[in-house]
Every structure is written in structure tokens, then in C-alpha cells.
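Study this one:
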Amino acid sequence: MATQTTAVQRGLTFLQVAIALQTLAIFFQAATAGLLLSSSHGEVLHGIGARVMYGASMLYVLAAILAWRPGGGSPRPILYASGFLVLASVQVVLGIAHMASLHVPLGVLMFGLSMITLGQALSAHVPKRSGTRS
């Protein structure tokens, strides 16, 4: 029983780290998007950040699959992670096409969704204290 609990906690921790990495990568993209306007190095950094963000989205899908236990857990995180990977794919296509009017709002939406998901992942695993009043 203890090993099963440890394995579940380890999987959930990996999922939390993957979501946090994805959120940080998207935040980095926002910062480098601003550099695009003011620096010659902005485009290079934004391109590198795009690859890291896409990789982080794939890592999130992998972490969600590994955290899911057939018959023991909800597959909902896999759906969220897969949906986010689809959004990341659309974001890459819009960026390559230089469609900033759609690329920027989608980036803001992705950052917001990633923050919400990270908040839920972190708050769902905080141990509740006994003996406190609501």
C-alpha cells in the first residue's frame, strides 16, 4: 500500500513539474515577444522559446499519461494536456505565418489556461489540516 501511494505521489509530482515548466516557457515567450520589438536577438530567443514551449507541452502530455492509472484515475488530465498540445500546434503555425492578430491573443489565452491548470494541480495536492474551522 505504501509503495502504491509513493508511486502515485511521484507521478503527480512529475505532472506538477511538467505543468510548471510549460507555464514558465509560455511566460518566457511573452517576454521574448516584447524583445522582438526592441532587439535584434528577440527573434532568435523567441524561436528557441517556441521549441522549448512545444517540448514542454509534449512533456505535459507524457506526464499526464504516466500519472493516469488504468482503472484507478481519471483520464481528464490527458485530455487537458492533449488539448493544450493542439493549442501549441496552432500557435506555432500562426507564429510561422506571422499572424500576430491571432498569435498574440492565443498566447495570452494559453498562459491563462496554463496558470489555471498549474493552480489546480498545486492546490489539489495540498494536505488539508484537521481541526480547522471553515
Notes: Helices lie at 2-38, 42-67, 76-96, 100-123. The longest helix spans residues 2-38. Residues 11 and 67 are 5 Å apart (CA to CA). The mean pLDDT is 86.
